[in-house]
Amino acid sequence: MTDVFTTLQWSDLIFLLEGAWKTVQISVVSILLGTLLGMVFGWLMSLNNKLITFAVMAVLDVFRSVPLLIQLILFDSFVAIAGFPLPAFWSGTIVLIIYTASLVAVVVHSGIDSVPAGLRAAARCLGMSYWQEMRHVTTPVGLRTAFPSWLGVALATIKDSALVSAIGYVELLRASQILNTRTQESVKIMLLVGLIYFIISYPLSRLGARYEQRQKS
Amino acid sequence: MIVLENLHKSFGPLEVLKGINLTVDNGEVVSLIGASGSGKSTLLYCINALETIDGGKVTVDGVEVHAKGTDINKLRQKLGTVFQQWNSFPHLTALENVALAPRVVSKFSRKDAQEIAAKQLKHVGLGDKLNHYPSQLSGGQQQRLAIARALAMEPTYMLFDEATSALDPELVGEVLDIMRLLASEGMTMIVVTHEMSFARDVSDRVAFFKKGVLAEIGAPEDVMNNPQDPDLQRFLSTIG
């Protein structure tokens, strides 16, 4: 008679690492595209056009307020019902991109807002165009305010990527659940998985620490 | 030459400039004095198009500032502006602060832009602060930095908006000295100021503003020693 449960094997580690790689992929794509999209939204809000701000805020509020898990399941079901079923990676990542963008937009908006109007006027008075001023004054100065918050959003995105497991995508968390069920060694596996999430997030945290160091000096 | 013709400007229901006529010739220093809210600063911002106008005309070297199709970024290179707040770029050293616009706007190489910047910083007495960040400079030094930054674009005109009002009293002198230096070098300047001795000593003409109207203008000795307008008499006696 064979055991129902089997012990952890080396191949399981490979299985976990494959899940981790997918987590990295979801995270990198979501953070990159979410940040770009969020920058556009944040910039639109900074134009101080009431109509544009209202429209952007209305859309972003929905994505910020509805739990990510529900957004993922709704979107995944919706595209399937609408007749355009997407691979789980993409329906999950698209939702995560928009969710990240809605958070980044607020960060970018407050970053731009943190730059004193006089500073921007001074740059324009030197003959800089709107975009030259944006590039050389508002961006670097606003980044000082925005970067720590952005980092928080990016780190949260990595952790939130675990929710994509809910629509059946085998990323790191889902992979660990599968192993849990088979081996019943949940403590070991969770320790390992926690460590892997840490390793994925660590470079970003370091980047943040280095940035703050540079600001101080 | 800067020419204002029948210039009108309102903020909502409040008319702050009620038909100003003023011509400033090249090489001239004109000081604008008057109580706060009399429209002096707004007038400067109508010249460099930080504000729109509601009527009349502003021309700089024959170019109509507020006309459609005017390249305002190009025009502003002729109009150096120094604000009450010095507005140093906090992320750049003094040298980079001054070199930024020559590099980005005038397309000088980094090296050439830095040479221009170093020259202008020496000009305002900051030759030993090239690599300091604004946070390491006093208010007076930062205001001189702002002057150097404007001069680096080789403007024909300099507009000063209460350049010393935000400074601690002991730092006012060093900034006024630089402004005197520029005047002595022949720079055309329009100076909004509460420094009456500066207006008296340095200006070719002094203009008194009162509630959006240019009430009196003339040589400083006439306007300041023998004021005609009763409000100007009162203003001069209160401000000392």
TrEMBL record, chain A:
Pfam families hit by this protein: BPD_transp_1
Major location category of this protein: membrane
Keyword Membrane belongs to the record: yes
InterPro entries, sorted: AA_ABC_transptr_permease_3TM, ArtM/GltK/GlnP/TcyL/YhdX-like, MetI-like, MetI-like_sf
Domain ABC transmembrane type-1, chain residue ranges per copy: 20-208
CDD domains for the chain: TM_PBP2 (cd06261)
Record flagged with keyword Transmembrane helix: yes
Record-linked Gene3D superfamilies: MetI-like
Membrane association type: Multi-pass membrane protein
Entry's localization field: Cell inner membrane; Cell membrane
One annotated GO molecular function: L-cystine transmembrane transporter activity
Transmembrane annotation, as ranges: 20-44, 51-75, 87-108, 189-209
Keywords, in A-Z order: Amino-acid transport, Cell membrane, Membrane, Transmembrane, Transmembrane helix, Transport
GO cellular component: ATP-binding cassette (ABC) transporter complex
Family stated for the protein in its record: Belongs to the binding-protein-dependent transport system permease family. HisMQ subfamily.
UniProt protein name: Amino acid ABC transporter membrane protein 2, PAAT family
Species the sequence originates in: Celeribacter baekdonensis
Lineage: Bacteria, Pseudomonadati, Pseudomonadota, Alphaproteobacteria, Rhodobacterales
UniProtKB/TrEMBL annotation, chain B:
Keywords: Amino-acid transport, ATP-binding, Cell membrane, Membrane, Nucleotide-binding, Transport
Membrane topology: Peripheral membrane protein
Record-annotated ABC transporter domain positions: 2-236
Domain of life (superkingdom): Bacteria
InterPro entries: AAA+_ATPase, ABC_ATPase_HisP-typ, ABC_transporter-like_ATP-bd, ABC_transporter-like_CS, MetN_ABC_transporter-like, P-loop_NTPase
Pfam families: ABC_tran (PF00005)
Chief localisation class: membrane
Intracellular or extracellular location(s): Cell membrane
GO cellular component term of the entry, any: plasma membrane
GO MF annotation: an example: ABC-type amino acid transporter activity
Signal recorded as keyword: no
The keyword Nucleotide-binding is annotated on this UniProt entry: yes
Family: Belongs to the ABC transporter superfamily.
Name the record gives this protein: Amino acid ABC transporter ATP-binding protein, PAAT family (TC 3.A.1.3.-)
Species: Celeribacter baekdonensis
Source taxonomy: Bacteria, Pseudomonadati, Pseudomonadota, Alphaproteobacteria, Rhodobacterales
